[in-house]
Amino acid sequence: MAEIQVEFDVPAQMRDGTVLRADVYRPGGTGPWPVLLSRLPYGKQTPVMGVVLDPLAAARRGFLVVIQDTRGRFASEGEWEPWTYEERDGYDTVRWAAALPGSSGAVGMIGGSYFGNTQWMAALSKPPELKAIAPLITWSDPDDGLFSRGGAIELGITVPWSLVQAADTLMRRHRTDLDGLVSGITGLVRDLDGLAGGGYGELPAGRFPAFARHELPEVGYERSRREPGWARSCTVAGRHDEIDLPTFQLGGWYDIFAQGTLDNFTAMRRAGRSATLIMGPWTHTNWQHVVGDVNFGFAAHSEFMGMRGRVHDLQFDWFARTLGEGATPEPDTGTVLLFVMGANQWREETEWPLSRAVDTDFHLRAGGRLTREPPSTAEQTEEFTYDPMDPVPTTGGALLMTDDFRAGPLDQTAVEAREDVLVFTTEPLAEDLEVTGRVRAVVFAATDGVSTDWVARLCDVDERGVSRNVADGIVRVRAVTPGEAAEHVVDLWSTSIVFRAGHRIRVQVTSSNFPRWDRNLNTGEPEESATTSRVARQQVFHDPARPSRIVLPVVPVVPPA
Predict the structure, then answer these.
(1) Cis preceding-peptide flag for 32 (omega within 30 of 0)
(2) What angle do CA 351, 355, 360 make, to 5 degrees?
(3) Which of 145, 215, 433, 536 is the most exposed, fewest CB within 10 Å of its CB?
(4) Residues classed as catalytic
(5) DSSP letter string over 477-546?
């Protein structure tokens, strides 16, 4: 086999004269080769790159691979301003990459998270050479998992992500000032190390003090509220019909952008585009078979995929079909591959969501019961006290935080023992029950404050009584009439799980999940300035007029032929 050639820091000039630099991997031989392009802010040779794209493996498969530092990062010129320039820089870079020596002129893009979003932004700019994109584990609407969720700030990811990115910013700022660099990096590391020990609790949450200490630009919740138009620079939601390309989406049920992956897929299918979807039991950074406290079986591992081979090879096969000469995928073609937890099996489908799933109500009842039968008479109201200074601690879930907070399904014993967490549980199931689709909780509740949060969590309780989280969500309510009952819908996003016979289904209801989401201080003050809190008295109702419930998309069991 001919030797792969690698060029480092190859310059590409953007329309405003800024030079961005990329590493280019050329297969052995003469070409021409289709291009796989990735644009990321984390460094071209960072280990995280290998999780989503092995450039040497791609080059061996016959792709010319281009990995570029985005504007203002590492070897690239310009000022680091997250998301702001990715649409125009994506356009210019695609055109440049298509003209590289050895290129066939057809470009595909690949990457995850931030560099999943750079693909969507490039696709929206419509460079003619861009033929396919594979955005993995990335969002659709930044206000549904990136900046915020249900109106609450995604504090868990926003703070550490911004601080970690600041390291390169400080190195550029103090490149000629060694003392300033040492002082800046020392302070940055101190803030990062101190997050789990109390740093997350700094106020105001909407204008986080650590960002001001390090003179960092506002790049998340606060700026999106102050400049509503700016968030469009990283928003694909509502714009999918502008993109006429085949797409390959990959996500995980415990990924912080799980619903964004699904929303991107469904929107592209709705627009009549070829779209492929893979959803594993994974988190944002763990695509193996042991996730959280659960071993889903080696078939779940992204290197195995239930004997389908490495997920990287599935992607390369897809790119070979979509970037090859004369490739013209038909509309609405593509695969849906879901990992069904509990059954611990991959299953091929032709659609998402599943049309055969039936929304089924499970009612929150007095005495901590969870039943399919609604209350026929008034039942005693459940009450608890929510103190923002003693919030329910984040324990597992679809999250991306500091390493102190593990993602995935974790034992909920400590959470469910708290007096500020209401717990509702079914009797042991007589037979398996599959839930595949989007889950929501309808909570009729009241607070004595003017603003508060409602958090709902779906859990699977095994035969030994161990409760583990499956999905959760939050909704922030404002301008509340104190003491007045109102209906609140909590979006728990989507999942696919079989609750096994003998297991029980459980629902938690509370008012916090901190520091994953910022605390509602119950005062109604804006998050950008609120620093004082009050204790709130919460009530949850379950009677015929106010039937609090969780709505599960139940997939009927098909008897064997």
Answers:
(1) yes
(2) 135
(3) 215
(4) 113, 255, 284
(5) E-S--TT--EEEEEEEEEEEEEE-TT-EEEEEEES--BTTSPPP-SS---TTT------EEEEEEEETTE
SS3 track for 371-418: ECCCCCCCCCCEEEEECCCCCCECCCECCCCCCCCCCECCECHHHHCC
The C-alpha atoms of residue 378 and residue 546 are separated, in whole angstroms, by: 9
Residues with Cβ within 8 Å of residue 458, at least 6 apart in sequence: 439, 469, 470, 471, 472, 492, 495, 505, 506, 507, 550, 552
Q: At what angle do helices 155-173 and 178-193 cross, to 10 degrees?
A: 170
pLDDT tens digits for range 201-251: 999 999 999 999 998 877 778 888 888 888 899 999 999 999 999 999 999
Strand-pair partners of 23:
67
Rounded Cα distance between 98 and 323, Å, is: 12
How many CA within 13 A on the CB side of residue 501? 4
d(CA 274, CA 318): 11
Closest C-alpha to 289, from 298, 280, 278, 277: 298
| C-beta separation of 377 from 389 below 8 A | no
Q: How far is residue 129's CA from residue 218's CA, in Å, rounded to a whole number?
A: 34
- State the number of CA atoms in the 13 A half-sphere of 53 facing the CB: 33
8 Å CB contact between 261 and 279? yes
Residue 201 DSSP label = G
Relative orientation angle of helices 86-98 and 114-125, to the nearest 10 degrees? 80
Rounded Cα distance, 221 and 231, in Å: 9
The tokens describing 88, both together, are 């125009």
pTM over 0.90: yes
- Tens-place pLDDT, residues 11-42: 999 999 999 999 999 998 888 999 999 999 99
Secondary structure letter of residue 548 according to DSSP: -
135-146: buried (b, 16+ CB within 10 Å) or exposed (e) per residue?
A: bbbbbbbbbbbb
CA-CA-CA-CA torsion for 335, 340, 344, 347, nearest 10 degrees?
A: -30
d(CA 67, CA 416): 46
